[in-house]
């Protein structure tokens, strides 16, 4: 897994394939556990990006590229999601998606990340954009503070992927992710996930408890050896009634 646009040869898809089949020993779920699943890794990434932003004003990588953000906003537009709907970006990284949401007109936006440097960077970028109404919080999604609940929309771009690579019992962590999602999302609320590590079918299985597929978003396809597939899956789930 890595940053990049979701074109055929994106480093995201290449790294996703190696996460499944690459060097190192496979965990029970078929992934090679990796530093990408640890807080230390992300802290180091965003500390570097924070420094680069301070020196050069560069906001850093947008996971799955600009198109991944446009795809989500287009979906919100198509479904006439009200601009005062509460939106939570899970593992917001540099917070660039929050900026896009605010520029589009959303007024109740929250970004969380377990890396304090990611939240610091998001804050600086948001400040530079002259936006003030975005809530940011250092928060581990797998160990939530009770204040986070009642969201209409939750977005995940690459965070479930990262959690799936955690060297310390990733299977349990994925189960906890689904539980946390059930806590923060309102009944009938939407969960928009973009993943390069999981196929549509696998995501349906992962989120079968309490969520149902609402829509699959189209992503670029690639062909190899006479077969065609997608390097990135983008799905919208809806939380079922309890
Ligand atoms: C692949 S990056 C994606 C960042 C951002 N969503 C984007 O699209 O650019 C994964 C992000 O998830 C965050 N993350 C991973 N595990 C987390 C957890 N348990 N709670 C909160 N954030 C987490 C990392 O710090 C990192 O910012």
Automatic annotation (TrEMBL):
Biased composition, class Low complexity, residue ranges: 1-25
RNA-binding as UniProt keyword: no
GO MF, one annotated term: protein-lysine N-methyltransferase activity
Keywords in alphabetical order: Cytoplasm, Methyltransferase, Nucleus, S-adenosyl-L-methionine, Transferase
Keyword Membrane set for record: no
GO cellular component: cytosol; nucleoplasm
Range of residues in the leader sequence: none
A Pfam family of this chain: Methyltransf_31
Broad class of enzyme this protein falls into: transferase
Region ranges (Disordered): 1-26
Catalytic activity: L-lysyl-[protein] + 3 S-adenosyl-L-methionine = N(6),N(6),N(6)-trimethyl-L-lysyl-[protein] + 3 S-adenosyl-L-homocysteine + 3 H(+)
E.C. numbers: 2.1.1.-
Occurrences of domain Methyltransferase (ranges): 85-214
Broad class of where this protein is predominantly found: cytoplasm
GO-annotated biological processes: methylation
Function: Protein-lysine methyltransferase that selectively catalyzes the trimethylation of EEF1A at 'Lys-318'.
Family indicated by similarity: Belongs to the class I-like SAM-binding methyltransferase superfamily. EFM4 family.
Protein's UniProt name: EEF1A lysine methyltransferase 2
């Amino acid at each position: 897994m890595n940053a990049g646009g979701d074109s055929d040869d994106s480093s995201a898809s290449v790294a996703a394939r190696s996460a499944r089949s690459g060097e190192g020993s496979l965990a029970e779920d078929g992934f090679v556990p990796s530093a990408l699943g640890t807080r230390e890794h992300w802290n180091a990434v965003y500390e570097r990006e924070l420094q680069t932003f301070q020196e050069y004003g560069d906001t850093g990588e947008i996971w799955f590229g600009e198109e991944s953000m446009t795809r989500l906003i287009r979906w919100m537009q198509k479904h006439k999601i009200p601009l005062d709907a509460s939106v939570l970006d899970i593992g917001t990284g540099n917070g660039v998606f929050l900026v896009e949401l605010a520029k589009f007109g959303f007024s109740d936006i929250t970004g969380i990340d377990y890396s304090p440097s990611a939240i610091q960077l998001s804050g600086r970028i948001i400040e530079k954009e002259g936006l003030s109404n975005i809530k940011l919080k250092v928060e581990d999604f797998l160990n939530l503070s009770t204040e986070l609940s009642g969201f209409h929309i939750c977005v995940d771009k690459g965070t479930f992927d990262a959690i799936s690579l955690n060297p310390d019992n990733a299977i349990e962590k994925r189960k906890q992710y689904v539980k946390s999602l059930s806590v923060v999302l309102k009944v009938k609320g939407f969960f928009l996930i973009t993943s390069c590590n999981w196929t549509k079918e696998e995501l349906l299985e992962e989120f079968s408890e309490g969520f149902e597929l609402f829509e699959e978003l189209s992503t670029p396809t690639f062909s190899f050896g006479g077969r065609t597939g997608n390097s990135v899956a983008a799905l919208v789930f809806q939380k079922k009634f309890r």
